[in-house]
């Protein structure tokens, strides 16, 4: 069983269009809905997905939640509620009243100074409501990430796409090893092992697990079996490789770690972090 914790749905044919992806991105600028994902995901053993925001428009949170109401394949939603705004609390409370709303995502700019504005109070509100935080960051944001994790130890924080670390098949640099090791010292930090194909310096990305093994070994060593989470980043992964390849690489790796490790990675840890339920 697999819960895919990182997919995006959007529809450029809506009258209002979409803020992302841009029309120039001919590979991604198309209608992407559950009906397009399921033929790819269900044969791989995926039983549900957590959708991650692909729009900064507040009204699009409800658009995804309405999709979820029509299709039980969507088991959770990480939406967009922008911190440091006067209406953050009101927006969050309105969305949190809907059970499938399980988190928000922010970019690394918010972690440059976590003490700025109402950010810490906003994040504390997430923790109080038992809602998680996804972060889309690069190497410069890890210091702020750790500060946030330390300030709010009850907030579950999920790093997306292995921190956007470049992957070249070689052993990790000492800087990246230390970055991950230091982050993993905070038990409320989780690592979403997604974006592997997109982070590859070789494109199209290699489809053999050994190319990704140095990165996966480091993440396994420092985060352990209960804080690594599967996500495909579909459809963004497609220019780098197929959905089946996204699954095959990590399936091979985590199967080597044993049945319990594989189950943790593919679905149990998703339930721990996002509190999702499979119908």
Brief rundown of the structure:
The protein has 279 residues and is of the alpha/beta class. It has helices at residues 34-41, 59-70, 88-96, 119-128, 142-151, 174-184, 196-199, 209-223, 243-256, 259-274, and strands at residues 2-7, 46-52, 74-79, 101-107, 132-136, 157-159, 189-193, 228-230.
Order of helices and strands: EHEHEHEHEHEHEHHEHH
Radius of gyration (CA) equals 18 Å
Average pLDDT for all residues: 97
- Beta percentage is 15-25%
* Uncertain segments: none
Tally of extended strands?
8
- Give me the CATH superfamily: Metal-dependent hydrolases
Report the principal-axis shape. globular
| Number of self-contained structural domains | 1
Can you lay out the helices and strands and say which pair or pack?
Elements: E1 2-7, H1 34-41, E2 46-52, H2 59-70, E3 74-79, H3 88-96, E4 101-107, H4 119-128, E5 132-136, H5 142-151, E6 157-159, H6 174-184, E7 189-193, H7 196-199, H8 209-223, E8 228-230, H9 243-256, H10 259-274
Parallel strand pairs: 1-2, 2-3, 3-4, 4-5, 5-6, 6-7, 7-8
Helix pairs in contact: 6-8, 8-9, 9-10
Structure description:
The protein has helices spanning 34-41, 59-70, 88-96, 119-128, 142-151, 174-184, 196-199, 209-223, 243-256, 259-274, and strands spanning 2-7, 46-52, 74-79, 101-107, 132-136, 157-159, 189-193, 228-230. With 279 residues, it is of the alpha/beta class. An 8-stranded parallel beta sheet has the order 1-2-3-4-5-6-7-8. Strand 4 (101-107), helix 4 (119-128) and strand 5 (132-136) form a beta-alpha-beta unit. Helix 6 (174-184) packs across helix 8 and helix 8 crosses helix 9 (243-256). The protein is globular and about 45 Å long.
């Amino acid at each position: 069983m697999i819960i895919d914790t990182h997919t995006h749905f959007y529809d450029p044919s809506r009258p209002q269009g979409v803020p992302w992806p841009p029309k120039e991105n001919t590979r991604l600028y198309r209608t992407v809905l559950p009906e397009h994902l399921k033929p790819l995901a269900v044969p791989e053993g995926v039983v549900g997905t957590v959708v991650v925001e692909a729009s900064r428009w507040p009204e699009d949170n409800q658009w995804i939640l309405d999709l979820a109401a029509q299709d039980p394949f969507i088991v959770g939603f990480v939406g967009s509620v922008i911190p440091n705004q006067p209406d953050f609390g009101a927006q969050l409370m309105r969305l949190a009243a809907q059970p499938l709303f399980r988190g928000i995502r922010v970019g690394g700019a918010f972690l440059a100074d976590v003490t700025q504005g109402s950010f810490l109070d906003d994040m504390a509100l997430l923790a109080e409501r038992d809602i998680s935080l996804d972060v889309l960051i690069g190497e410069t944001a890890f210091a702020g990430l750790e500060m946030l994790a330390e300030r709010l130890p009850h907030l579950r924080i999920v790093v997306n796409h292995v921190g956007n670390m470049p992957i070249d098949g070689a052993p990790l640099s000492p800087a990246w090893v230390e970055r991950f090791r230091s982050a993993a010292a905070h038990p409320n930090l989780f690592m979403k092992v997604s974006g592997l194909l997109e982070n590859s310096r070789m494109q199209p990305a290699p489809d053999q697990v050994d190319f990704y093994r140095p990165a996966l070994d480091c993440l396994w060593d420092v985060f352990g079996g209960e804080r690594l989470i599967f996500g495909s980043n579909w459809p963004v992964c497609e220019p780098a490789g197929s959905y089946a390849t996204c699954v095959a690489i990590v399936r091979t790796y985590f199967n080597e770690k044993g049945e319990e490790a594989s189950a943790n990675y593919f679905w149990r840890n998703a339930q721990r972090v996002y509190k999702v339920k499979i119908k």
